Amino acid sequence: MFFKTHSRIDPQTGRLSIYYRLVENSRNAVGGVSQRSIMAVGFMDDVSTEELHRIADRLNDRISGQGSLVAESVKVREYVDHLYTRLVKERRIDRVLEARKELSRCDWQRIDMNSMENRDVRELGAEWICLQTLYRLQIDQFLAHRGWDTEDLKLALAHIVCRTVYPASELKTLRYMQENSSICELLGLDAGSITKDRLYGTSLRLYDEKEGLEHHLSRKTNELFDLEDRIILYDLTNTYFEGDMRRSVLARRGRSKEKRSDCPLVVLALVVNVEGFIKYSAIYEGNMADCNTLGAMIDQLFTATTTYPLVASDKKRRIVVIDAGIATEENLRMITDKQYDYVCVSRSSRKAYTIAKGASSVTVLDHRKRPIELVQVHTSEATDNVYYLKVTSPTKALKEDSMYSRFCTRYEEGLALIVKGITSKGGIKSYNSVNRRIGRFVQQYPSVHQLYEIHIKKNEKDVCTSMFISSLHYYLLPITLLFVSFSGSVSPFLP
């Protein structure tokens, strides 16, 4: 057991600090070694690196029941006692000392270990829960109604359960199904007759049922949990392929959100309700812009999310939540034409605005108990059915300021290298080459390059003689506001 760290803003101080977690190495079902998080510790700004290692060593000694001959400081002992108490209270570890005391009171008998045999040990708990969930969702009945025979239906259920418990490729799923899982015994399948090619075929058949299956699950989850889907969230992401994908219809090169624009991409669009249930999904070409995907999705939204007719006179119209990349004027108009309301971040910053008449500021807390201030404002774009909120977030300001400061530092370091090449012997001095180097940094840091003015002097041979950089940091103000546009009634947001 050891500490793992990552940077996070401390809500108490508002500064970027080190956040600690207790983790341990573990071996997964296929023999690979991975790290498993045991407990979130939090911020420990008063602990040095050496003390951190001592705390981890003493915790391991305490958990294993071993004593320590090294005298530790008061701080280390207090942290060890506190963390060990939390581990025991939250049942993150097995208490070795208490277990030994309990075992000492047992009635022990001698057995011959060489006479014991253990075969076909299988995992059962997660598989049983997932299988019962599929039965409650009536997926088996849906597939049977679609013409699936009994053997293919059981294989489909086994495939879904195993991919839920252990998400992996078909090849690893087959190995997990045959060597670790008890799903075949639960469904009455012969594990030896299952091949990866059959799993590939099952995946393709399930994908062919995607539209009807999503519609069935949308209605069934609404019935089971008594949901109305008044608020719908729509967003996109993309993923990349490492191969050429030359025969793919959808794989295209575009802007990758994983910084892999060198690979073919596909775009995944999801419609999700506030409870987290996926209502509808679609896969688009990798070079499709975010704002162009909503048109195909909005026509499916009503069918995939409603369990009763929607009429224009319904005062509680459904609300679609989208980000600024999708919220074009055409898309917003299309949403309202389809009898939906919307909530989105404004695509442009509103400089000319006034506090709406009679509006009062409302402070809400996010999931980390950090304050966010909301107030309705009046702009030239506001109408009787379109409203704007000014959202002020101090935490957002700290995050944005930290990001901009980091980008500015990296941008200045890159420009300093260019200046060094101009002034040093053997460096890059060609005017065109220097401009290309500057252009690469402008492309890499588009959000901060406008904060600088760069002046280059050259001679008659197009050789740079000097380069001057003027910083315009007085324009760099912390981003504390967002303007949120929404249609419909303001009652869900403001008193």
Give a nutshell description of this structure:
With 495 residues, the chain is α+β, with helices and mostly antiparallel strands. Helices cover 37% and strands 22% of the residues.
Number of beta-strand segments = 15
SS-derived structural category: alpha+beta
Whole-angstrom Rg: 30 Å
CATH homologous superfamily classification of the largest domain: Ribonuclease H-like superfamily/Ribonuclease H
Number of helices: 14
Average of per-residue pLDDT values: 82
Overall geometry comes to globular
Portion in strands: 15-25%
Query: How many domain modules?
Result: 4
Main sheet attributes: strand count, strand direction, barrel closure = 10 strands, mixed
Report on this model:
The structure is a single chain. The chain has 495 residues and is α+β, with helices and mostly antiparallel strands. It has 4 domains: 2-103, no CATH class; 125-208; 228-345, Ribonuclease H-like superfamily/Ribonuclease H (Nucleotidyltransferase, domain 5), CATH 3.30.420; 397-475, no CATH class. It has helices spanning 49-64, 74-89, 96-104, 125-136, 139-145, 150-165, 170-179, 183-187, 196-208, 210-225, 294-305, 329-337, 394-423, 431-444, and strands at 2-9, 16-27, 33-43, 231-240, 265-273, 278-285, 319-321, 341-345, 354-355, 362-365, 371-378, 386-392, 452-458, 464-471, 481-487.
